[in-house]
Specification:
By secondary structure, the chain is mainly alpha-helical. The chain has 5 helices and no strands. It folds into 2 domains: 76 residues, no CATH class; 55 residues, no CATH class. Helix 2 packs across helix 3. The radius of gyration is 19 Å and the shape is globular.
């Protein structure tokens, strides 16, 4: 658990404008707590992101800074990130308006899971989770 207290605004000052901002914040704290980076490394990454874009450190910058920090440390391969973004875009396109976007809605992932499940059944293997 982080030893540093998390700053909160006043009751009339919401800390997050959207749920994804709270998730980004929580992800940064969780990865710090697991020892993937210290707060100085995080501050340096976020500062560099803000300097590169010329924008204040909003939560979009948090995501970009986190991606860059994890890639620089060899934790996140750029090609894996690119594939995850593509999967999310496909899932978003396949999700009905107003529904939550889930990676399971990605037609390529769904087809892959169906093919793997069918192959396991064909060779007598155990069913996959969700079969």
């Amino acid at each position: 658990m982080s030893a540093d207290p998390i700053p909160f605004g006043g009751a009339a000052d919401p800390a997050f404008a959207e749920p994804w901002e709270a998730q980004a914040f929580a992800l940064v704290v969780a990865l710090h707590d697991r020892g993937l980076f210290d707060w100085q490394a995080w501050a340096d990454a976020l500062g560099a992101q803000s300097a590169a874009t010329g924008r204040a450190a909003d939560y979009t910058a948090w995501i970009a800074a986190l991606e860059g920090l994890l890639a620089a440390r060899g934790i996140l391969a750029p090609e894996d990130l690119a594939e995850r973004r593509a999967a999310f875009a496909r899932a978003a396109a396949a999700t009905p308006h107003g529904e939550p976007i889930r990676l399971a809605n990605d037609p390529l992932i769904r087809n892959c899971v169906i093919r793997e499940s069918s192959a396991r059944h064909a060779v007598g293997g155990p069913p996959a989770l969700g079969d």
